[in-house]
Amino acid sequence: MNKSANYNLTIIVPVYNESENMPRLEEAFSAYLAKASVPCCVLFVNDGSTDDGREKIMDMCSRHGDFFYLDFARNAGLSAAIKAGIDYAESPLVGYIDADLQTSPEDFELLLPYTKEFALVTGIRANRKDTSFKRFQSKFANGFRRSMTHDDATDTGCPLKILHTSAAKRIPFFKGMHRFLPALIRLQEGQNYKETPVRHFPRTAGVSKFNLWNRLIAPLVDCFAYRWMRSRYINYTVAQNNL
């Protein structure tokens, strides 16, 4: 049996060349899991790291019974890492947080109360600790995305989210998917999302994997991919069956 089925929440942590952050990740998740309001496990997804992150992930998982991992054969990107975590999770809820720890696992507690009513609960980064140029890029990209998708979401780039696993598994996969989770959830009949403020911290170790292309240009291109996919999205309701 898939071990994640023993938990209420599987927290997906995509990892790409974050070796310097591994000690903080182990400490932060050990502390959070000990006091979380629901049984949680952590699923690290090594996205083809070229540093020694793979070995450190395996070492962490050998020391903690609630830590698990997926190891990609090669780098596939953030959306692929999130999707793989969703595909392998069998808990009722799946969460997502970045390995840079610019958001805190403890703030999953701010999201969990809303999961009874919403298929997706996502953070909004309050008092962002990024440069003014990064904030400008995000503000511009968010504005363009809203005009294209009409999802009304404030901060889709916030790396702190919880989804119903059943809804998450129905999300269509494409590169850049992680930027459109509110819009993709709304495509599912009767499903909606909730935003709530969470804390944001400066990066203290490692190097950001984002640049002008993947923070600003690529999201604009992905909006057109979403629009194409939305026009062809399949929704259906089964009235009855005899399976």
Task: Provide a descriptive summary of the structure in words.
The protein is globular, with a radius of gyration of 17 Å. It has a 7-stranded mixed sheet, sandwiched between helices. The longest helix is centred in the last third of the chain and has 19 residues, at 212-230. It starts with 8 loop residues before the first strand and ends in a 13-residue tail after the last helix. The model has no long low-confidence stretch (mean pLDDT 87). The protein is built from 8 helices and 7 strands, in the order βαβαβαβαβαβααβα. α5 (132-149) runs parallel beside α8 (212-230). It has a single domain, classed as Alpha-Beta Complex (Spore Coat Polysaccharide Biosynthesis Protein SpsA, Chain A), CATH 3.90.550. By secondary structure, it is α/β, with parallel strands linked by helices.
Jot down its keywords.
globular, 8 helices, 7-stranded mixed sheet, 243 residues, alpha/beta, Spore Coat Polysaccharide Biosynthesis Protein SpsA, Chain A, single chain, 7 strands, 17% strand
